[in-house]
Structures are given as structure tokens and as C-alpha cells.
Design a protein that fits this description.
Helix content is 66%, strand content 0%. It has helices at residues 4-17, 25-31, 37-50, 52-62, 68-78. Helix 1 runs parallel beside helix 3 (37-50), helix 3 (37-50) packs antiparallel against helix 4 (52-62) and helix 3 (37-50) packs parallel to helix 5.
Length: 87
């Protein structure tokens, strides 16, 4: 499946249905490959609703990849906070 319009909806359904669980590998790969807020914010919200720790881990991993406006949208939607990585 290559269409992100379908992927982001499908991944949300998988997370809420319990078909994708810790460590959320498929969704992690998706949010690390696309920075568009329309797609990543709902995925982070879904992951956050199931596991705050995993949502934070994934967000920290991809923090530097996101535009500052995307970071702000993710943080406002989930309450996650992060900072620049030391990597």
C-alpha cells in the first residue's frame, strides 16, 4: 500500500482495534517517513491512547525529522514534549 491517505486511516484502525500493539513498529515506520501533520498527528493520538511511553519513545526518535509546526501540532494534540536530540 503506497497511498498515505489510506495508510494513516488504516493504521489508526489497526491501533484502536488492537491489531497493532507495542512497539507499534508499522506506525513508527510511517510517522518517521512522512512529516505531514494531517497524517502524523492522528497516528500519534492513537498510539498515545494505547501507550504514552511508546508514543513518547517514537516522538523522541523522529523529533528532528519534523518541521517545528508539526512538532507543535503533535505536542498540542497529545501532550508530548521533547527537545533536540544529542545525536
Amino acid at each position: 500500500m503506497k497511498n498515505p491517505e489510506i495508510k494513516y486511516l488504516w493504521y489508526q484502525i489497526r491501533i484502536f482495534a488492537g491489531a497493532e500493539t507495542k512497539p507499534f513498529i508499522i506506525s513508527d515506520d510511517f510517522v518517521g517517513s512522512i512529516g505531514r501533520m494531517k497524517f502524523v498527528v492522528p497516528i500519534y493520538k492513537a498510539i498515545y491512547s494505547k501507550s504514552k511511553e511508546d508514543a513518547h519513545r517514537i516522538y523522541d526518535k523522529h523529533y528532528d525529522f519534523y518541521h517545528p509546526m508539526a512538532r507543535d501540532a503533535i505536542e498540542r494534540a497529545t501532550g508530548l514534549k521533547s527537545g533536540p536530540s544529542d545525536v
